[in-house]
Amino acid sequence: MAVVDRITAALPTAVVFVATIPRTNNFLTDFIADRYNSDINRLLLRRSADGFRVMPVRMDDIAPDEYADRLHPNDAGYRKMSDNWFAALRQAVKRGWVVPAEGDLSDPNSGNPDNGACPDDSGTSSPASSSTSTSEDNSGQYIASTQSHIYQRGQLGPVVASTQSQSHVNRWAAFY
């Protein structure tokens, strides 16, 4: 929770999503994961009651038949994980935590250096930056990618979130 606390202290209006640990179909590791997940949910509920925008994302509901092996989800398991991330995002939107982006959104590189990369300003204070792109792969599926970088006077170091989704691109567009 120290990382969550540092992020919410540095960026009090940021929405912080914290995923629970998926079960592995192993009694011992599932026992530990269940305990951890219970503690995370309890702590996030307390932080949320204190006014912080924190939200758990369930990953512990993957069924045994949604695993490719004893550790890694299969396509159905990954689809469920993606659905859970999407449900958490929808919940944050319903709570009014997600606000429309400002600025020129027609150019994914606006505000970024010429190469489209986020500036490497670790050790200095600068606002969060992000870029989003959508591309089409050879099968006609659309892939949306988002990268965000947060710098806070070197205390946090860079925090990078990168996501890719093939199944929810059209659903994401419905928000905006």
Please explain how this structure is put together.
Strands 3-4-5 form a three-stranded antiparallel sheet, with no helix packed on it. The chain has a two-stranded parallel ribbon with strand order 1-2. It is built from four helices and five strands. The chain has 176 residues and is α+β, with helices and mostly antiparallel strands. 32% of the residues lie in helices and 22% in strands. The two termini are 31 Å apart. Strand 3 (125-136) and strand 4 form a beta hairpin. The model is unreliable at 124-136 and 140-176 (pLDDT under 50). It has two domains: 2-94, SGNH hydrolase (Rossmann fold); 102-176, Nuclear Transport Factor 2, Chain: A (Roll), CATH 3.10.450. The chain has helices at residues 2-10, 27-49, 75-94, 169-173; strands at 16-19, 54-57, 125-136, 142-152, 159-165.
Q: CATH H-level name of the largest domain... which superfamily? A: SGNH hydrolase
Strand-and-helix sequence, N→C?
HEHEHEEEH
Distance N to C terminus: 31 Å
> How many β strands by DSSP?
5
Structural class: alpha+beta
CATH class of the largest domain: Alpha Beta
How are the strands of the biggest sheet laid out side by side?
A: 3-4-5
Percent strand = 15-25%
Question: What's the shape?
Answer: globular
